[in-house]
Amino acid sequence: MATDSTPETRWLTPDEQQAWRAYLRASRLLEVALDRDLAHHGTQLSEYEVVSMLSEAPAGRMRMSALADLVVQSRSRVTHTAARLEKRGWVRREACVDDRRGVELVLTEQGRAHIDDMARCHVNSVREHLLDVLTPEEFRDLGHSMQKIRDALADPGQAGDAIR
After folding, report:
1. Strands (DSSP E) along 28-149, which ranges?
2. How far is C-alpha 72 from the chain's CA centre?
3. How many angstroms separate the CA atoms of 22 and 13, rounded?
4. What is the per-residue pLDDT for 41?
C-alpha cells in the first residue's frame, strides 16, 4: 500500500516485463557488438563517440562539459577518455577560446586521419547489428520512440535533434 508521499507501485505486466527485459538485453548486446567491431581499430565505442562529435563540431573543438552532456557521460569519464585519446595524439586540451576558465577538447590532424576508417567501421556495424535486423518502418518507429524517451529525460533545452 502506498503512503501519502509514495504512489502505489504499478508492477509490470508479463508482456511489459518481457519487452523490458528484451530491451535491456538487446541494448547491452548491441553496445558490446559495436564496441567489438571498433576494437579492430584499437578504439572503444565511447572513444569513437567523442572523436566523432569533435569531427562534426565547428573547428573540431568543443567544451569538455558540453561534450560530456552530448555523449551522456560524466565529466570525469570524458576526462579519462580524453586522456586516452591524448596519448594517441588524436586530441589535445586547450583553454576555451571565449572563456579561459573552461577547457575544450580539440581534434588533431592525427585524430582526423583515423576518423574516416572508424566511421566506416561503425556505420557498417550499426547497419549489420541494428538496421539490417529491422524493417525501415520498425527502425523509424524505434527512432521516434527513443526520441520521446530522450526528450522526457533530457534537461530542458537539451532535447533537440528531433526525428522528423
Report:
1. 61-63, 91-95, 103-107
2. 6
3. 14
4. 87
- Residue 125 and residue 34 in contact, taking contact as beta carbons nearer than 8 Å: yes
pLDDT digits (tens, 9 = 90+) for 28-39: 999 999 999 999
Protein fold of 33-150: Arc Repressor Mutant, subunit A (1.10.10)
Strand order in the sheet with 91-95: 61-63, 103-107, 91-95
> What whole-number distance in Å separates Cα of residue 32 and Cα of residue 24?
12
**pLDDT tens digits for range 110-158:** 999 999 889 999 999 999 999 999 999 999 999 999 999 999 998 765 5
- Name the packing angle between helices 64-71 and 45-56 (round to 10°): 120
pTM of the complete model: 0.82
